[in-house]
Amino acid sequence: MIPEFALRLICGLSIIWCLAPRAQITSGFFRIQMLLTLGLSVLLVLTSDQLKIEEAEAATVKGWVWFGGIFLALTSFLGSVLWTLERRKAGTIFVFIVALTSAGVLAFLAMNSLKTNESIPRAIADQLTAAWLIGSVTAAMLLGHWYLTATGMVLAPLIRLSQIFAAAVVLRAAMVIFGAIPVEAEQELAWSLLTLRWAGLIGPFAMAILTIRILKYRNTQSATGVLYAATTLVFMGEMASSLIQ
Predict the structure, then answer these.
(1) Residue range 60-77: mean pLDDT, rounded
(2) What is the mean pLDDT of residues 19-36?
(3) What is the rounded CA–CA span in Å between residue 90 and residue 110?
(4) What pLDDT is attached to residue 239?
(5) What does the buried/exposed string (b/e) look like for 94-124 if buried means 16 or more CB atoms within 10 Å of the residue's CB?
(6) Are 233 and 146 in contact (CB under 8 A)?
(7) Which structural domain, as residue segments, surrounds residue 11?
(8) Are residues 91 and 152 in the same domain?
(9) Which residue in 216, 100, 97 sits closest to 155, CA to CA?
(10) Model pTM?
(11) 36 and 102 together in one domain
């Protein structure tokens, strides 16, 4: 669960970097973000042996995931250096490299860890929508914190990321509704996990709308507090989803 979650977060964060209005965000934010994916990449490499893959293909799949983690760590480090030096165009190239690489590794992992009666397109969609959700809420929350340092930044980037987060919740909820996997567990345990799972979707959606409304009053601290709570709920919901599956 740990390596898969780390890979999802790397992918989700980097996708949000690509969608964010980078010209309106100071370089320091992306420098720190790429250091974050550097740490997550190291975690992915160190825990890659925990991936649950069919025994016949385990060595090959884990090897490619390990190699992908090493590559992501190197590109994240180089990207953070470029953003530190204010080389925004070159840094943007590394943003897209991290996004494409992590999405590719995540899709590869999805294809090689299919669950019962699960198709490849659905498995990939499940991984990517989960990555988008946890990445969007984490990026929005961290950007909210960044306004404490970069007080002169316009609010448009945080509003955009909050809107992307709301869209991610809707898409993830649709994925859960139309692609639900039967729960093979005791009824009491199943209902408790399902309750937690849906709390990780309904609650964050309400919080995303609340954040957007709060930002109309230019109160970034309150908005960041709401996003922090939403991040906790999303993480709990996605962990519950993994346990259900």
Answers:
(1) 91
(2) 95
(3) 30
(4) 85
(5) bbebbbebbbebbbbbbebbeeeeeeeebbb
(6) no
(7) 1-113
(8) no
(9) 216
(10) 0.89
(11) yes
Question: Is the domain of 244 the same as that of 127?
Answer: yes
Q: Which CATH number covers residue 203?
A: 1.20.120
Structural domain count, the chain: 2
Are residues 59 and 175 both part of a single domain?
no
Return d(Cα 223, Cα 213) in angstroms, integer.
9
236 shares a domain with 146: yes
Work out the pLDDT band at 159, boundaries 50, 70, 90: very high
Question: Residue 229's Cα: distance from chain center in Å?
Answer: 16
| pLDDT given at position 117 | 62
Query: Between residues 245 and 224, which one has the greater pLDDT?
Result: 224
Residue 212 CA from chain centroid, whole number: 20
Residues 154 and 72 in one domain: no
Q: Tokens in use for 42?
A: 């190291």
- Mark which of 59, 79, 113 sits at the end of a domain: 113
Residues sharing a CB contact under 8 Å with residue 50, sequence separation 6 or more, in sequence order: 1, 2, 3
How high is the pLDDT of residue 186? Answer: 47
Tell me how far apart the alpha carbons of residues 49 and 53 are, in angstroms, rounded to a whole number. 10
On whether both 127 and 207 belong to a single domain, the answer is yes
Q: Is residue 185 domain-shared with residue 162, that is, in the same domain?
A: yes
Domain boundary among 113, 140, 168: 113
Question: Are the CB atoms for 149 and 202 separated by under 8 Å?
Answer: no
pLDDT greater at residue 43 or residue 194: 43
**Cα separation of 98 and 174, whole Å?**
27
Question: CA-to-CA distance for 190 and 196, rounded, in angstroms?
Answer: 10
245, pLDDT greater than 80: no
Distance (Å, whole) CA 45 – CA 28: 26
